[in-house]
Amino acid sequence: MSSLRPVTHVSTAHRQKEGGGFIVRRPFPTQGLDHLDPLLMLDELGPIVYGPGEAIGAPDHPHRGFETVTYILDGESAHADSAGHAGTLTAGDVQWMTAGAGVVHREMPSLRMQREGGRMHGFQLWVNLPRAEKRVAPRYQEIASSTIPTATSPDGLATVRVIAGEALGVSSVIATRTPILYHHWTLAPGATVTVALPPDARVGVYVFEGAVTVSGVVVGDGQLAVLGDGDTVTLSADVASSALVIGGKPLREPIAWGGPFVMNTREEVMQAYADFRAGKMGAIPPEIVRA
């Protein structure tokens, strides 16, 4: 028999500057919710409309010990890294980057957006790596919007894009190193849907448009509902709404966080800084066009 997960905590996103000075909404980490093991951070960029010459991003910066998941809803994000990878994400695309042992990364609006401006909206989720995998070789999965599985509820009022995990009988095409779920739900007025969840996962629901009733609790735009134990959650809406359902199986390991590095001990973080300063994480090749 299924068990409905209750809402145990609601976190309201705060705004702060990141990268080259762009503003994000961040529901965690924040006061009262330092992380959602194994998820470390969720940032929402925009929606914002840039004028010509106004678009900004995140210039060259290092990472070690975790994964970044970039999901673009609107706009174009160009990336490059010290392993020689480069590309551009457009609306609906996902990049799942395993930083592992260390990589220098750049994420900027495309040259076209920098020149012409336009609407930008997206998310970046940080996923912790277990101790045994924090020094794996960097890996990239770039998934075009057209290949992300989608499903619709029987009444046609709820639609989901399955970036990781499973929902409404469809499974993601992304391979994750630990069990992760990442759903993008779009709810029409009057929608009600029951979503099956792994009972061993820690799960949150982040609303970024409208308002969603999550297991009986109304959660507004810019709020994250943390769920308790169980294996299902109900989502319903009276107005057009959108939400992310995110979570994963907890690692239950110590976390030492120092800026762009997430390790298990402070000594490992200091070693990451030393390795970066010594050039051991490489540099973005000059032949890659600066975007």
Report on the structure:
This protein is mainly beta and 291 residues long. The protein has a single domain (7-248), classed as Jelly Rolls (Sandwich), CATH 2.60.120.10. It has two helices and 26 strands. It has helices at residues 111-116, 266-277; strands at 7-12, 14-18, 22-28, 39-50, 58-63, 66-74, 77-81, 86-89, 94-98, 103-109, 118-128, 139-143, 150-152, 158-164, 166-167, 170-171, 180-187, 192-196, 202-209, 211-214, 217-220, 223-227, 232-236, 241-248, 256-258, 261-263. The chain has a seven-stranded antiparallel sheet with strand order 1-22-19-24-17-14-13, with no helix packed on it. Strand 20 (211-214) and strand 21 form a beta hairpin. The longest helix has 12 residues, at 266-277. The protein starts with 6 loop residues before the first strand and ends in a 14-residue tail after the last helix. The mean pLDDT is 95.
